[in-house]
């Protein structure tokens, strides 16, 4: 796996770069035993594009997201982010500068909203780290971001329990948009939603990307969604990078056996397809 | 017929929730049930197993499983049925296993339930055979494990082992792979299919994932807000859905209907009406794109083609 060559000025501008990123967790109890959550991850994310990260549980997808967001400290390697002054190591950036640029949307829309706060408070909360705002100003700003995600006045004073799963995920996205970030890390934002609602959120994310020029890092286990939605895909397994490239190339013409297994596991293919059966048996054995 | 249900209605605190469900499952057949959250799928399963919570009541013209009239079953009959001719596996295998007991304890309990007078040693041997059957390696070591030591896929295999201990005629699988990774999901679906082919048991496979149903079911019934809105052969229903809701559901999946990447996905406007809400006419009317004056009349299931078993609850 080679790093992308230095990009040309604007069209393929790299906004986030990950170099030799590692995370090792010490296991509780047994002395000296460690778990390698992430091994030597290298990647570059281009402005305005969507990078999908696929892999099974324990493959290191969420660890990667946490390292980018500085929610964990890397054991080795670094993450750098394009700031006005050029590429800067995230480790040296104050949290307030980092979160202006990068925001996150979490998987479970039921668990990631404070049940005791009204929606306007939740959505405008990130702003309070940057500006002194009155209650009225906060409500106004919250309403602005709610409009962007297709919600409105009706939801402004609601509590999270009053909203449906899809509406809650919209609130999560509105909150992430509140600092006008350039990069959104979407950690399985669809998996808790019903199929018809999933489609609404995918459409919304595509619209926002087009209108606001957002860059997405989209963590998912659903290959069909990735194929529809992403430009590039990174396949991970047990903390290792398996394959990284353009979606068409990786999903239509995978070079790694593991990627082929993952593709073969997608449900909905005809019964008893020989290739499929063989792949499943390989996986069961391994 | 292993399972035959006619006009099953379920009410929550006296309010109708599930309305006039009529369906049946033949021996060796897999019936897929598709629907979004809150459409009543799980309540139907619970009714079939006699596990409805307090305040929820079921009534039907007919409800028979494995030759037993479920409407007249007393608690002794239910006990013999559950873990006997009927078994169920659940969405989250981790919360379905008792965290404080070893796998041996939990698995031999199912075995002993089936074979009353069995000795402990033969129950253990039977448990080993079952673990082997569901593809768990190092079975004797696994018997000593507690649930927290298992992966999700392994826990679901153990749930399946417990369910098939009694060689049931009908297995109800309620979203059995929703909590699992795709690769593990593929293995579990494959395992269920193998067991079905070996034993000839019938299955009712409940899922919100059309792909899963397409892969493992013979027939499908689509539920919306407490009703069956469409039923028929799985391939036909997914290839050319008749009911507007099924159509929306199929079209909302990325990668279907040859949508181009990054194109806008078809969505179903609005949201599901609460299952207990009374609606005049068609329950899907408020979200349907093609309504007319017929839709204020409650639609009935109608055959869509002359010589097939496809039905749709829509007058179009």
From TrEMBL, chain A:
<dbReference type="InterPro" id="IPR027417">
    <property type="entry name" value="P-loop_NTPase"/>
</dbReference>
<dbReference type="InterPro" id="IPR003439">
    <property type="entry name" value="ABC_transporter-like_ATP-bd"/>
</dbReference>
<keyword id="KW-0813">Transport</keyword>
<keyword id="KW-0067">ATP-binding</keyword>
<dbReference type="InterPro" id="IPR050319">
    <property type="entry name" value="ABC_transp_ATP-bind"/>
</dbReference>
<protein>
    <submittedName>
        <fullName>ABC transporter ATP-binding protein</fullName>
    </submittedName>
</protein>
<keyword id="KW-0547">Nucleotide-binding</keyword>
<dbReference type="InterPro" id="IPR017871">
    <property type="entry name" value="ABC_transporter-like_CS"/>
</dbReference>
<dbReference type="InterPro" id="IPR003593">
    <property type="entry name" value="AAA+_ATPase"/>
</dbReference>
<dbReference type="GO" id="GO:0005524">
    <property type="term" value="F:ATP binding"/>
</dbReference>
<dbReference type="Pfam" id="PF00005">
    <property type="entry name" value="ABC_tran"/>
</dbReference>
<feature type="domain" description="ABC transporter">
    <location>
        <begin position="16"/>
        <end position="263"/>
    </location>
</feature>
TrEMBL record, chain B:
<protein>
    <submittedName>
        <fullName>ABC transporter ATP-binding protein</fullName>
    </submittedName>
</protein>
<feature type="domain" description="ABC transporter">
    <location>
        <begin position="3"/>
        <end position="250"/>
    </location>
</feature>
<dbReference type="InterPro" id="IPR003593">
    <property type="entry name" value="AAA+_ATPase"/>
</dbReference>
<keyword id="KW-0472">Membrane</keyword>
<dbReference type="InterPro" id="IPR050388">
    <property type="entry name" value="ABC_Ni/Peptide_Import"/>
</dbReference>
<dbReference type="Pfam" id="PF08352">
    <property type="entry name" value="oligo_HPY"/>
</dbReference>
<dbReference type="InterPro" id="IPR003439">
    <property type="entry name" value="ABC_transporter-like_ATP-bd"/>
</dbReference>
<keyword id="KW-0813">Transport</keyword>
<comment type="similarity">
    <text>Belongs to the ABC transporter superfamily.</text>
</comment>
<dbReference type="GO" id="GO:0005524">
    <property type="term" value="F:ATP binding"/>
</dbReference>
<keyword id="KW-0997">Cell inner membrane</keyword>
<dbReference type="InterPro" id="IPR013563">
    <property type="entry name" value="Oligopep_ABC_C"/>
</dbReference>
<keyword id="KW-0067">ATP-binding</keyword>
<dbReference type="Pfam" id="PF00005">
    <property type="entry name" value="ABC_tran"/>
</dbReference>
<dbReference type="InterPro" id="IPR017871">
    <property type="entry name" value="ABC_transporter-like_CS"/>
</dbReference>
<keyword id="KW-0547">Nucleotide-binding</keyword>
<keyword id="KW-1003">Cell membrane</keyword>
<dbReference type="InterPro" id="IPR027417">
    <property type="entry name" value="P-loop_NTPase"/>
</dbReference>
